[in-house]
C-alpha cells in the first residue's frame, strides 16, 4: 500500500476549534487539539438542567462551548471540574445549565489521563486556572 491519506471528519475539526477557545486547551497544538477532539463527546442541556451534580465525583472533564453553566449562583469556568475528574474529589456544588441552556464537550477520565500524560502544556494550563481560582 503506497500512500494513504487520512480525512478528518468535519465534526472533529469543529470540536477542535471549540476546544481551542477554552483554556487550557488553548495551549495545545493543532495536532493535539484534533486528537483530543476525536475523543470528546458533545452534550446539550436545557436551561436549569443539572450538568454535574454537587457531591458527585466527576467521571469527565467538562468544557462549555455554547450557552452557559452556573455554579453557586455564578457563571462556571469554561472548563470544569478538573480536580474531581483527575483526583476523585467530590464536586463542590451543582453545575446547572444557564438561561439559554448549555452545550458542552466532555472528556472521559481515561482520555483525560492520557491527555495529561501526552500534553504537558495542558497540565500547566490546568495549574494556571487553579492558581487563578485560588487567588
Automatic annotation (TrEMBL):
<dbReference type="InterPro" id="IPR018490">
    <property type="entry name" value="cNMP-bd_dom_sf"/>
</dbReference>
<dbReference type="InterPro" id="IPR000595">
    <property type="entry name" value="cNMP-bd_dom"/>
</dbReference>
<feature type="domain" description="Cyclic nucleotide-binding">
    <location>
        <begin position="24"/>
        <end position="71"/>
    </location>
</feature>
<dbReference type="InterPro" id="IPR014710">
    <property type="entry name" value="RmlC-like_jellyroll"/>
</dbReference>
<protein>
    <submittedName>
        <fullName>CRP/FNR family transcriptional regulator</fullName>
    </submittedName>
</protein>
